[in-house]
Amino acid sequence: MENKRPIRQNEKDLLDFLLKQLNLAPEDYPYDELVDEYEGGKMGSISLGGDTSAYEGDLIQVEYIDSDNTPVVITLTKDNKNRLLDLDFWKVDFSKLIDYPTPDKLIFNKI
Predict the structure, then answer these.
(1) Is 18 left (phi over 0), alpha (psi -120 to 50) or beta?
(2) Cβ distance 78 to 107 under 8 Å?
(3) Which of 6, 16, 48, 51 shows the greatest Cβ crowding within 10 Å of its Cβ?
(4) 64, exposed or middle or buried, with CB in 10 Å at 0-12, 13-18, 19+?
């Protein structure tokens, strides 16, 4: 990955919201201000700057229904140094994400 761009405000808002759902302080889980988009940004997944070789696990997984009524699974992961690793989006039909999710549109599931 080499196409870094500044993290967008809606991405920060989503990250902070997800961490707060876990009773985690966003300042305890740092992420870079420059992110890498997976798949050219097609589905919305971004690398948050953690150590990809040190994946430690998923923090939270939620669902979202995109405006074309297609489910999207969103997973926030961390590395073994408590840095956020990825905000991963998987649209079940592999199509492009149409509308970026807002916290009020999330459906919570247990991992």
Answers:
(1) alpha
(2) no
(3) 48
(4) buried
CA distance 27 to 24: 9
Q: What would the pLDDT profile of 23-52 be if each residue is shown by its tens digit?
A: 998 888 888 899 988 887 778 899 998 777
Give the strands of the sheet with 84-91, arranged side by side.
4-6, 34-37, 46-47, 84-91, 71-79, 55-65, 106-108
Residue 57 pairs in a beta bridge with 78
For the chain, the first-to-last Cα distance in angstroms comes to: 28
pLDDT of residue 58 exceeding 70: yes
Tokens 């992110």 correspond to 35
pLDDT of res. 43: 80
For residue 2, is pLDDT > 70? no
> 0.85 cut: is pTM over it?
yes
Q: What is the DSSP-derived secondary structure letter of residue 73?
A: E
